[in-house]
Amino acid sequence: MSLTQHLSTPISSSSSAFVAHSNFISRTKNVSLPAKRFSICKCVAAASQEAQTAYKTTVSRNANMAKLQAGYLFPEISRRRAAHLLKYPDAQVISLGIGDTTEPIPEVITSAMEKRSRALSTLEGYSGYGAEQGEKALRAAIASTFYRNLGIEEDDIFVSDGAKCDLSRLQVVFGADVTIAVQDPSYPVYVDSGVIMGQTGLFQKNDQKFVGIEYMKCTPENGFFPDLSSVSRTDIIFFCSPNNPTGAAATREQLTQLVNFAKDNGSIIVYDSAYAMYASEGLPHSIFEIPGAKEVAIETSSFSKYAGFTGVRLGWTAVPKQLLFSDGFPVAKDFNRIVCTCFNGASNIAQAGGLACLSPEGLKAMHEVIDFYKGNTNIIVETFNSLGFNVYGGENAPYVWVHFPDRSSWDVFSEILEKTHVVTTPGSGFGPAGEGFIRVSAFGHRSNVLEACKRFKQLYK
């Protein structure tokens, strides 16, 4: 309730004590009372408690945590959104910032989860712990659906609670002593998980980079694909295509360059394909479409942006048997050990949904949802194009990357939020090369996307 609403609310029966007291005052208004002197009284007990030092353990903080800058990007955006709502409690805030899906999960998928859930109430249908790597039927369906004829088999697939979780588990596999490269800009988890593991030095404010990370610059000037001739050799290369945040999708020729670069340097590519189903026909949908990739690459993916599973939580990682460490030990065996140690397997209900996703009806339903979000991207792209901005992405990914030359990304974020009540994402939150850009997510109800674009036009016309 706003302050105005509160002041205009009629006094209810619960306020009777206040009314009686007021009447008493009015009846005794001619009674004079001796004046009193008031002074400030300090509570000694409270002051002494505040002065006491809080109890501390003798355990040292992980020094790597102290290297992290501010909060993780998306919680920080949520914090600013909440502060904006406190300032404008009646505003209709539209969120096109965090990449969270908004449309209902198709019924063909939820009905399968419902059936599995109800079965758990029966002796015949109940199941407890499953295989940490995922149910055999789902692993087989993922292999045949996404990696048919690519040499990836069901036992190369590890089902999980999401690609983001697997990215962090992979960092545990690699340990603190590896060097890493990331696209710049890129999804923040690659950098932050590396910092937490101790793979980096300190953050350098002058160039907004962590010491020890190779930032592969991806800008409009190089078509959002790094100039590999100028990239230093690292152990691990994180690469996302179609890309979050720029929306760019690498071509077959570009990914061939990347695989050859990794082979020449003895590196491992961690390929994030969370948006592969958004890629147009003719573009690679998996790194394993590239010859030789099974010897140098791991692929993570997710049902989050395909089926609306952001809250259900289900993803997978493909680790080929051919991928070996320098001593010849299979990477998949170490990843399997980490999965078995740190994870008890994805929810059996979620896995039932995943299996339904990969049925003919489920695949059709997922493509319909993806087409809906791609329709949103077209509306956003057309809006900013009509306003004279340079706009990227939107064709092969659910993100639109808009350039605001010579401006701070956070300043643009704040301007848009303050003047239109629309939440976007500042490009600099994805890396120094993102400065001067904002990312606009296409994940939203159509009415909200249309309203947001109307407000953009009013602000920047």
UniProtKB/TrEMBL annotation:
It comes from the Eukaryota. It holds the Pfam family Aminotran_1_2. The keyword Protein biosynthesis does not apply. Keywords: Aminotransferase, Pyridoxal phosphate, Transferase. Residues 92-456 form the Aminotransferase class I/classII large domain. One of its GO terms (biological process) is systemic acquired resistance, salicylic acid mediated signaling pathway. Belongs to the class-I pyridoxal-phosphate-dependent aminotransferase family. LL-diaminopimelate aminotransferase subfamily. PANTHER family: AMINOTRANSFERASE. This is Aminotransferase class I/classII large domain-containing protein. It comes from Carpinus fangiana.
